Amino acid sequence: MKDSEGLLRPKKYYLGFVILLLIFGSWFQFYEVGVPGFWKGIVISLIVSLFISNFRFYLLWKHSKEGFLFQFGTTVLSFFIHLAVLVLFIWRGEREGFVIGFFIAHFANLLILVFAR
């Protein structure tokens, strides 16, 4: 498959995701965060992001001619899935630490997606 401009490149995304895991892992190891739900938010957000990105790469691999439409569709799907997960955990009683960790990991993953193009 020829790389077109604007298409996601899975190798770059996975490399960025591993670097993100190393950053968050060292942050967890060396710095103490007093909010208990913070790390739960980071982990949940990264797991959801990884599954959505794997689904996106599978669709792009199978349907490379409609790449832009699938990227746009999975981005919208990603937004709604992240929103549903966030609302679910807030509804179950998570506090601001979870929300902060969730958004930090979510936006870090979005940066990886931007640089993987």
Throw out a few tags for this protein.
mainly alpha; flat; 79% helix; 4 helices; single chain; 117 residues
Give me a quick take on this structure:
The chain is mostly helical and 117 residues long. It has helices at residues 10-30, 37-62, 67-91, 96-115. The longest helix has 26 residues, at 37-62.
Describe the structure.
The protein is an all-alpha fold and 117 residues long. Helices cover 79% and strands 0% of the residues. It has four helices and no strands. The protein has helices at 10-30, 37-62, 67-91, 96-115. Helix 1 runs antiparallel to helix 2. It is flat and about 50 Å long. The mean pLDDT is 83.
Helix and strand sequence: HHHH
Work out the strand percent.
Answer: under 5%
Q: If helices are DSSP runs of H or I spanning 4 or more residues, what is the number of helices?
A: 4
Mean pLDDT: 83
Poorly predicted ranges (pLDDT <50, ≥5 residues)?
Answer: none
